[in-house]
Design brief:
The chain has 185 residues and is an alpha+beta fold. The chain contains one helix and eleven strands. Helix content is 15%, strand content 29%. A hairpin with a 2-residue loop joins strand 3 and strand 4. The model has no long low-confidence stretch (mean pLDDT 80).
């Protein structure tokens, strides 16, 4: 045999059944891992968009608010009652501080009453009677200039928001910032 002849091309063996099943199993395991990682990532990211509970909610213009002393307005989408009292506007969390039931406004008795255990609260969220350990929780509320987006007035600590004289201001509630009601005990 001559030494200058090239070696014969190596013949490729076809993949056997065991190797094919190993590759298929590893590929499906990798695909499952990527899917679980993607779903876990999406689930862990908060999705607080404007207009939903947990984000900023636009109530409307100052001119659209009910007059002071009238019945509170229910906003069920974002779990709040908007109460326009003599001392200002407040956004009250719609969950009772006793055991988490959803309370309602009673027009006959002019107060909030929890249907589960009978806790009662004034229109400004102050505790009146019942087993609730504290007054109602509140949200941060703002008055915003619609032209510039500048916050003109804000109630950060749950106090009533004194409305400026401009009827075109927009009222926004930050449902992601809840202020715990004061204890009565």
């Amino acid at each position: 045999m001559a030494k200058d002849q090239p070696p014969a091309a190596e013949e490729k063996k076809p993949i056997n059944r065991r190797e094919f099943l190993n590759f298929a199993w590893l590929a499906s395991l990798g695909f499952l891992t990527v899917n679980i990682a993607g779903v876990t990532y999406l689930f862990s990211m908060p999705r607080f968009r404007e207009g939903e509970f947990g984000g900023m909610y636009t109530v409307g213009k100052v001119s659209e608010l009910p007059p002071p002393g009238s019945a509170p307005v229910n906003h069920p989408k974002v779990k709040l009652w908007l109460s326009n009292t003599e001392s200002g506007v407040m956004a009250l969390y719609k969950v009772c501080t006793h055991l988490g039931c959803l309370y309602n406004w009673s027009d006959q008795e002019n107060k909030f009453i929890c249907p589960c255990h009978g806790s009662q609260f004034q229109s400004d969220g102050q505790y009146l009677a019942g087993p609730a350990p504290r007054s109602l929780d509140r949200f941060v509320i703002q008055a915003v200039d619609p032209n510039t987006g500048e916050v003109v007035a804000e109630a950060r600590n749950g106090e009533p928001l004194q409305l400026p004289d401009n009827p075109d201001l927009i009222i926004r509630v930050d449902t992601g910032t809840r202020i715990t009601g004061e204890s009565h005990a």
